[in-house]
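User: Run a structure prediction on this.
Assistant: Running it now.
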Amino acid sequence: MLNTDQHNPQAAKSRMVKADFVKNNKGINDGADIPIEILHGIFDEIHNNEIVLKDEQPALGNQEILTAKQRKEAAIIAAEDLAKRSEALYKGMLKGPKTKKGVDGTFHTAISSGHSKAMFENAWMSMLTGLSGPLSEFEHDEVIQTVLEGFRAAVQISGVYDLDLEKSAFIGTLAKNTFLSNVAEMKLKHTRVVKVLLELAISDGNNLRTSWEDILRCVSQLEKFQLVSSGALNEAELRVPRG
């Protein structure tokens, strides 16, 4: 989140400062605060050195403009990479001294939704990683249903708060798991992914914005399948060129 905030041109007018970063990370060390000098060090490191993926480096070095598809793929890869780094950092913090100060085990019900956006912006990468693994690896109906409900909720939250990067990452991951470009390997779970994408298009279409590209590509593929089944198109013409 900090890397995007500091280096995304769209956030130039409202970039986070150190005080904001410290405030956003209050109480995350098992109810206690991380030492302020550590947070300042993290802020300075990311502020001065943008995190750039290897796949993005050639394009950036040549000053090429990334296509919408490349940006979405980069967002998904970045989410997975940063989620792993966050998990490693969190595990490292857990090994340090713990305190129960300020934690009494009581559940408090929120009285407003104003905090939800900040919570989601901090947690979405871990959510995407946690949902993507089971979707790729498991076939069990209950697991897939739970995972797809998670994707649906994440897309809807992203849409409500106009979080285009997050929304593109979740929609792009779903689109990749339709397997519409490789029908021979499609399974029941892949058809359920298609169904979720179409349902999101109907229920949340006004919030999808640039993510419509992935959904329309799926719709186009489904239309081609219908033409093949009716004999108006042969299977060779069904193949979608990569790139």
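Confidence is low (pLDDT under 50) at residues 58-64.
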